[in-house]
Amino acid sequence: MDPYGSSDSSRVFSSPYTRLGILIQRILDRVTPFIGVRWLLNIVLLILFLLRIFFLQGFYIIAYGLGIFLLNQLILFLTPKQDPSLQELDNDDGNNVPILPTRANEEFRPFMRRLPEFKFWYTSFKACIISLLLTCFTIFDVPVFWPVLVMYFFTLFFLTMRQRIVHMIQYRYVPFSYGKVRYQGKNDVTTSMGNVANSGIKISAK
C-alpha cells in the first residue's frame, strides 16, 4: 500500500501491457526502413482476406468497410499537409501564408503529406488484421446484396480519385518522389571534380 491508500495491483497489471507496447514499438522501429517488405505484407494480408470472403461467400459488409477505410487513408496519403486551395483563400483574406512554388526560380519546398507513409502502412496493416479476425465470428456476417456495395464502392473510388487528380493538375504538384530529377549540389559537384582529378593523376603516373 502506498501513502495514498492504493495498492500495487494496478502496477502489476499494467506492467505486461507496458512491456507489450515497448516490444511493439521496438518491432515497428526495426521494420520502418523496409518499405517494400512492409507493403508486400499488407498485400498478402489483403489477398488472404479477399480469398476468405470468396470461399465463405459472406462478410461483404466487412469487405465494404475495409475498402472505404483504405480509400480514405489513400486520399489522406495523396493530400498535401497544407492544402493550396485553402492557402489561396487565406491569401485573399490578407493573411501571408506560404503557398507551393509554381515557378523554377521560387524556393523549393518538399511535398509533405497529410498522412505519412509509415502511418498509412500501419493503419492499413491493423485494418487488414482486424478484418481477418472479424470474419471468424458469424455475428458480423450481415446479409446484404453485395453487387450494390461493389458498384457503390467503385463509383465512390472513381469520383474521389478524379477529384484528387484534378486538384493535382490545378495546383501542379506530384505526391510521389520516384522518377523526379535530382540535381547535384555544390558539394557534390566539387567532390565529383576532385575524384576526376585524382583519377587523372593516377593515370598520368602510370
From TrEMBL:
It is a multi-pass membrane protein. It is found in: Membrane. Keywords: Membrane, Transmembrane, Transmembrane helix. InterPro entries: Rer1. One of its GO terms (biological process) is protein retention in ER lumen. The chain crosses the membrane at residues 35-55, 61-79, 120-140, 146-162. It comes from the Eukaryota. Its main location: membrane. GO terms for cellular component: endoplasmic reticulum; Golgi membrane. Belongs to the RER1 family. Involved in the retrieval of endoplasmic reticulum membrane proteins from the early Golgi compartment. This is Protein RER1. It comes from Didymodactylos carnosus.
